[in-house]
Structure formats: structure tokens, C-alpha cells
Amino acid sequence: MKTLIVMASALTLMACGGDDGPSSGIDPDRTIESLDMEEARAICEDAISAQGGPGTTFSCDEIEITVGTVSECTADIDSATCTNTVGELNDCIAAMEEDSCSIFLPVCSILITCSM
């Protein structure tokens, strides 16, 4: 079985937003690379919460995924150099709230294009 550690980004990429989706309060039109550390932390808290919290593991087919920490996620966002938006990341997080394996769907391709 393969193992993948999700970081915000992760890939892991916030306190759960419930039915309204992620609740970081950050303008969805902002680019990921424009976020400061405090904003990145807010997004990471939502993303990690949506995935069950740090250290949570789940399987998608033959791949075991472990959710990373807020610190790891924040570092990933801080090093991201992409023009993707917070809204795109929020869409991925909302999808992961419904099904953690959404991380492999096109809605979460931002995690790869932003190298998070």
C-alpha cells in the first residue's frame, strides 16, 4: 500500500465551514501566493479540520493518506508560487469535507499546480 502525507494545502489544505463550506473569511479572489502567514494558517486550519484533523488516516483505493499538521500546511502555502485563487482552494476543501478521496479529483488539482 502506498502512503501519502496530506499537507494543505494538502494538500492539506481550516475550522470546518459546515454547510457553507470553508470559513477562513479570506476573499476568494485572492491568489494563494498573496497570502500572509496568518491567512495561510486560517486556510490550513479549515483544510485540516475538513480532513479529520492532523494524523487522521484514510484510504483511497490502494493509497493510504495521512493528514499533515497546520505548521506543515502553512509552510506549503507560504512556498506556493501560483496564481490560483483562495476560492479554488476552498472548492477543493469543500469537496474533501464530503469525501476525503476528492483530493484526487480535478477540483483539487490546485494542490498540484500550486506545488503544495
Structure at a glance:
With 116 residues, this protein is an alpha+beta fold. It has helices spanning 37-50, 70-79, 86-98, 110-113, and strands at 2-6, 57-60, 63-67. A three-stranded mixed beta sheet has the order 1-3-2, with no helix packed on it.
Question: What do these coordinates show?
Answer:
With 116 residues, this protein is of the alpha+beta class. The protein has one domain (2-113). It is built from four helices and three strands. It has helices at 37-50, 70-79, 86-98, 110-113; strands at 2-6, 57-60, 63-67. It has a three-stranded mixed beta sheet, with no helix packed on it. Helix 1 (37-50) runs parallel beside helix 3. The longest helix is centred in the middle third of the chain and has 14 residues, at 37-50. It is globular, with a radius of gyration of 12 Å. Mean pLDDT is 80; it is low at 1-21.
What attributes characterize this protein structure?
alpha+beta; 12% strand; single chain; 116 residues; disordered N terminus; 4 helices
Helices and strands, with pairings:
Blueprint: E1 2-6, H1 37-50, E2 57-60, E3 63-67, H2 70-79, H3 86-98, H4 110-113
Parallel strand pairs: 1-3
Antiparallel strand pairs: 2-3
